[in-house]
Amino acid sequence: MAVMWTIILFGALSLLAAVFFAWVVHRNSPTQGTADEDQAERLLEIAAAISEGAMAFLTREYVYMAAFMALFGGLVWAVVDWQSMLSFLVGASISILAGFIGMQAATMGNVRTAAAAQSSLGRAFRIAFNTGAVMGFGLVGLAVLGLMGTYLLLDQLMAGDSRWHVMEALAGFGLGGSSIALFARVGGGIFTKAADVGADLVGKLEENIPEDDPRNPAVIADNVGDNVGDIAGMGADLFGSVAESTCAALVIGAVAFAADLGALLYPVLITAVGIPIALVSTVFARTRNEQMIESALKRTLVLSTVIMAAVLFFVTREVLPGEFEIGGVQYTSMGVYYCVLAGLVAGMLIGIITEVYTSHRYLPVREVARASQTGAATNVIYGLSLGYQSSMFPVLFIAATVFVGYHFAGMYGIAVASLGMLGTIAIGLTIDAFGPVADNAGGIAQMSGLGSHVRVRTDALDSAGNTTAAIGKGFAIGSAALTSLALFSAFLVRSDVTSLDMLKPAVITLLMVGAMLPFIFTAMTMKSVGKAAMDMIREVRHQFATIPGLRPSFELTERSLQAMETDGLARDLISRLRRLLGRKFATDAELVEAMRKEIGGAGNPSDETLLRRVNLGVKFGRPDYRRCVDISTRASLREMLLPGAQVILTPIVVGYLFGAEALAALLIGSLVAGVVLAISCANSGGGWDNAKKYIEAGNLGGKGSAAHTAAVVGDTVGDPMKDTSGPSLNILIKLQAIISLVFAPFFSHSLNLLG
Amino acid sequence: MAVMWTIILFGALSLLAAVFFAWVVHRNSPTQGTADEDQAERLLEIAAAISEGAMAFLTREYVYMAAFMALFGGLVWAVVDWQSMLSFLVGASISILAGFIGMQAATMGNVRTAAAAQSSLGRAFRIAFNTGAVMGFGLVGLAVLGLMGTYLLLDQLMAGDSRWHVMEALAGFGLGGSSIALFARVGGGIFTKAADVGADLVGKLEENIPEDDPRNPAVIADNVGDNVGDIAGMGADLFGSVAESTCAALVIGAVAFAADLGALLYPVLITAVGIPIALVSTVFARTRNEQMIESALKRTLVLSTVIMAAVLFFVTREVLPGEFEIGGVQYTSMGVYYCVLAGLVAGMLIGIITEVYTSHRYLPVREVARASQTGAATNVIYGLSLGYQSSMFPVLFIAATVFVGYHFAGMYGIAVASLGMLGTIAIGLTIDAFGPVADNAGGIAQMSGLGSHVRVRTDALDSAGNTTAAIGKGFAIGSAALTSLALFSAFLVRSDVTSLDMLKPAVITLLMVGAMLPFIFTAMTMKSVGKAAMDMIREVRHQFATIPGLRPSFELTERSLQAMETDGLARDLISRLRRLLGRKFATDAELVEAMRKEIGGAGNPSDETLLRRVNLGVKFGRPDYRRCVDISTRASLREMLLPGAQVILTPIVVGYLFGAEALAALLIGSLVAGVVLAISCANSGGGWDNAKKYIEAGNLGGKGSAAHTAAVVGDTVGDPMKDTSGPSLNILIKLQAIISLVFAPFFSHSLNLLG
User: Fold this and answer.
1) Model confidence at B330: pLDDT above 90
2) Are B525 and B186 in contact (CB under 8 A)?
3) Which residues of B touch A509 (CB under 8 A)?
4) Pick from A388, A492, A519: which is nearest to B520 by CB?
């Protein structure tokens, strides 16, 4: 009982922490430090548009999710049992709730980060970090309490049934979490990239306006996409991993620890113990200057990993029996600790390697940048091989973890290794969510005309966020691989499969078919983004063509001149500037240039004066942001249908037609090929992105050079790969496995067509 | 004995047929139909340059091969036995010989095809086809006789030893063939693409001269590359497949058929029987017009497939015992027939699917072409997904074949299914080699200034050759997959592994590692091409900058004016044209345009008159072709070192460290991921290539449009994928497997580190 209460206590602590962080963020005014009323109004307006857009997407998605939950829940009921259906529904609902909280926090935090960046980098950093923490702690608290609550509920409802059966029914919880992740990752991934590509291709290339310009109709959709894809998507993905790994460990451990509730709940405890540790680490997340942001973020991660490793040693020894038996084999509690430790360490190592391959501080990305000098083709070739190459060490680390897990605690070892890798999830999610919040803040600053010094600060936050996001992606893939192996193991246990001989015809055949599935899935999701982006491009072009005043827009107004006078600009300079009244400029930079020309060297007003005040004169036709959000929403939900159907139907159909062993082979095939492909996609995309940024930082000819044009091609190719297809592969391998686990009883009716 | 003599007879027939086809090709004069002496001289000169370049590459490669054979042969001797070493050396030597014959034939046939195209499309077609047949029949004859000869030799040398041991030693023959394929496919693949990319990037893009222009220093290297990569590479690849599949089938069958030599030699007989059938089909390879070329080629393939299916029914029933036992399981001769048939049919189906995905007559390629309209990035995205998508059906066909094979005749079934797929190899190789010969002929026609009507004809031949080459690539991958599974099976038999349980830690771990290897290998080979191309680009730029007269080159001479007069051009027009004497033009087209301008509408001379005669005036500085060939040769041999070492060392190291089961898992991991990746690479590349050609044919804006520029990027990305990395993956999966088979005895000393 002590273990159970510890879990509940820590879970509650996590939720309390989330509420606290939310309160801290909310305490900041969304317009703090914004003296000008117009700007303040604009700030609130933009933030509201993003928030509304995000909610519009969620609302629409909820309708689809509800329909899906009803249908699929019914199927689970029909072919498995009502208990599994119940925990499926609970798991799905909690995942939805977690996503909702994350999105609310993000749309609350982004504007406050932007406003705070006006006065202090450190304060902006804290706000973005705390916003991420709302998501991190909220999600982990919900996961832990949800699992415990569902377990207690089922235990009550299934009184008299064995603990083993209770745990099998609990697997539905993981299925629920993972199903929502399908919507969030695949749908969200398509949404965000359709908006991004659409905004860039028309805005930057055709209309020649800067990124995040308020005149671009897709700009709000683009910012909504960051929340939808990177906050809700990543959150649901990792929520699924935790829920599924835990369920897998519980199913496998149920036989061994049926009489010992404390030992049985050990898998939940791993995650719960991570909560106070993560909480302590957040204290060390502080920075004063731009160079320190990244190390501040990484410090919290390393710190919580180290403390976790130490604490778990004692926890494991305390909670698990010194020796125990699973499936006729003897294992030790210390063995289990080694498994958890392997997961923890592998997670860190994968993060480091991911950074080496995707940061332009290191050789691989610089090679891609250099290859851009001979054109787009060589840039693409080098970027693709960077991705392929980068899979080597992560796969070796994952493979080693699998070996350690298997060796020291059999299938149970793999499941707890997975939980070990996810042990730092609260802090991991916090710094993951940090990125999109900072990104959004930058967008809001730009759109509200907060001036360039604010943008410089948010860019610094965003850049650090990009690096931690790359590390987070590595984590997500690694944990997805281990999770899906854990589920695979639990599936075998539930199906009474005790050996899986590759020399059986059905096994080797389905292994080949399984390896093909990630490729088909990737092809579909990549094309989905293409199609959704086309819809967006059409709409944006249409708005530019039809909405009056949307194109030429910056001009000096009487009001901004007055403001400059208040600022102390000499009267004669003001009167010279008056000549510019009524002239329209495509960008604010052009307007400032024209102003400088009028003034000549006289008075030499600071950049600040001109830049800050000129934006008061912004006049633009108001694009219909809502329509763009709507189009991205509809396109993403439409385009996720086919890949979604593939993931959900394949295991059910294969299991029914060919039986459990064949299905197991399919899962392994998908897993081994999917992991490599996912890592490749993510890192190719990250590499291209940063190769472009490396050039934009002034290297190899800088912005506007031929190398830059070539690098933009690679970056655009990488967008759907790193933000849609790659992350969606995590869902593919996990969802196929948990569906197999939950539907295992159904496959006993298999036709066994391959003998 | 009847079976043995039949094999020897058909093998001899094949060699005779090759000699016959060579004689038929050689009978044509290399300058037939070339009235002008200058042109004739130029024709011979260009052909000699290509031939010399090819031989220069081969000679250099032979040095490396000899060193490799000595080293690796020594290793085989040291850790396996001298018998395996002996057959390794024989297999390697025969593969080298087959490649040599193919290259000799190709460099003899290309110039004759070009010359014949001046007078008749049908004749040119026959010459190119017969050239391919020299390769096709020569190679198959050598394979069959080589296998038989080595068997008889070993049988003699190992008198008293069991047939099983003889067959195990014979596996070295396959190893020899496959090792040479490593050089030919990987080295050749890098050579051809380095030359191609180098020639294109500098010639077409920087110097703005047309493809195959004699002023381009890399043009000869490019044409040599077609021979090196597509003739020698493909030949060695398929030679390896036949040799290896046969060895695998012999090793597995040796236990069952030890007493029945006829049944034992059945695997060799399958290939031998294909010889007379292929010979009959060649009679139907005739065409009169351009539209019929492709169907003429396909007709021969379909015909030989159908006859083969019928004949093998009787052969199988005759040669194999009605019922027999392998590894304690009963199989029937009809079951074996089904396996062979499955391979035969799967090969055809894979060919058809490959065409659907890579020909611009069908939707997938047109989608890629359409995506080019929104830029290079969308072109690349769509091309990549085309490749991923295209793996579905081929993998399903291969998987189904594997299942049928396993189901009806266990591991023996997979080996004979592979031989079934390769049953039509003589004709397959013939139409495969047809492509590069036609391609070379086009290049020679262009370089010798044979006029545009000749080029139109060779282009038609080349285009048909491209389609059949795509089909051939599908075949090569499919047979590589089956071959490597067959070898894997033989390896297990030799290592006494009777089950391969994925639930063992070492197995699942190495399975993951194995799946990663093809990606690492692909990354390396793609970058190898990039680096080799850089070397080439530097050299070509250097030559353009330093060789006088290389750049501006076309001008009208007194001689060409005289020729026009002889052709009947009016005297006054000639005198008007005289004004152009001494002016230099970048292309012949520009010169013709200038001529038309001078003439005005007067006399209205036919395009023929102007175009044919203008080329007499070609004057160009002579580039140093030889240096380019040399650079491609050196770069390719240098760049193949790393990927080559990966392929050869991985199985030996893994087998030694972790034992036979772990190695088997590694092989399967590489196989399942490698096949999908190989198909994806090949078809993405093919798709991009034909999307570009579709646009060049005047669609979506045609040549010079923005869509075309975008499509060129995809085509360049696809070049190394389809001609280097993709085909090299065949070698990876086969070579790893045959090394495992041959070194199997060595792994009994394994350290078994993973327990």
Assistant:
1) yes
2) yes
3) 399-400, 402-403, 406
4) A388
- Candidates A382, A384, A653: best to mutate against B (most CBs of B within 10 A) is A384
User: Torsion over CA of B338, B344, B350 and B352, rounded to 10 degrees?
Assistant: -120
Q: How far is CA B84 from CA B73, B154, B496, in A?
A: 9, 9, 19
Chain B neighbors of A676, CB-CB under 8 A = 515-516, 519, 673
**Per-position b or e across A78-98, b if 16+ CB within 10 A of its CB:** ebbbebbbbbbbbbbbbbbeb
Q: Is A512–B376 a contact, with Cβ atoms under 8 angstroms apart?
A: no
> What is the average per-residue pLDDT within B421-446?
91
User: Å from A250 to nearest chain B CA?
Assistant: 19
Q: How far apart are CA A286 and CA A282, in angstroms?
A: 9
A33-42, A455-464, A700-709, B618-627: segment of lowest average pLDDT: B618-627
Q: What is the pLDDT of residue B587?
A: 67
B 677-696 residues with CB < 8 A to A: 680
Contact (Cβ atoms closer than 8 angstroms) between residue B652 and residue B743: yes
Q: Are B43 and B444 in contact (CB under 8 A)?
A: yes
Write down the pLDDT at residue A620.
Answer: 56
> Would you say A98 and A138 are in contact if contact means Cβ atoms under 8 Å apart?
yes
Asked if A512 lies within 8 A of B385 by C-beta distance, the reply is no
Write the Ramachandran bin of A480: left for phi over 0, alpha for psi from -120 to 50, otherwise beta.
alpha
Identify the band that residue B200 occupies on the pLDDT scale cut at 50, 70 and 90: confident
pLDDT tens-digit map of A671-680: 999 999 999 9
Interface of A with B in 519-558 (CB under 8 A): 519-520, 522-524, 526-527, 529-530, 534, 537
Q: B130-150 b/e with 16+ CB inside 10 Å = b? A: bbbbbbbbbbbbbbbbbbbbb
Best-predicted range by mean pLDDT among B203-212, B280-289, B501-510? B501-510
Q: For the CA atoms of A667, A669, A673, A674, what is the dihedral angle to 10 degrees?
A: -10
Mention every residue, 6+ apart, whose C-beta is less than 8 A from residue B152. none
Are the beta carbons of B12 and B145 closer than 8 angstroms? yes
**Which of B82, B55, B85, B84 lies closest to B69 in space, CA to CA?**
B85
Distance (Å, rounded) from C-alpha B395 to C-alpha B683? 13
Interchain contact, B503 vs A499, CB within 8 Å: yes
Contact yes or no for A672 and B514 at CB 8 A? yes
Contact status of B378 with chain A (Cβ, < 8 Å): yes
pLDDT digits (tens, 9 = 90+) for A682-719: 999 999 999 999 998 899 999 889 999 999 999 999 99
Contact between residue A468 and residue A294 where contact means Cβ atoms under 8 Å apart: yes
Q: Give the DSSP letter string of B407-427.
A: HHHHHHHHHHHHHHHGGGHHH
What number of H helices and E strands is found in chain A?
27, 2
How far is the alpha carbon of A431 from chain B, nearest alpha carbon, in Å?
29
Task: Taking the CA atoms of A496, A500, A505 and A509 in sequence, report the sign of the dihedral they define.
Answer: positive
Write the DSSP symbol of residue B77: H
Out of A385, A519, A676, whose CB is closest to B515?
A676
The residue among A300, A275, A269 whose CA lies nearest residue A287 is A300
- Output the pLDDT for position A588: 67
Cβ atoms within 10 Å, residue B566: 9
Q: Between A286 and B412, where is the model more confident?
A: B412
pTM of the model: 0.91
Which of B201, B206, B350, B519 is the best substitution to test chain A (most A C-beta atoms within 10 A)? B519
- Tokens representing B601? 């509408």
**Contact in structure between B158 and B165 (CB atoms under 8 Å):** yes
Residues B423 and B271 sit within 8 Å (Cβ to Cβ)? yes
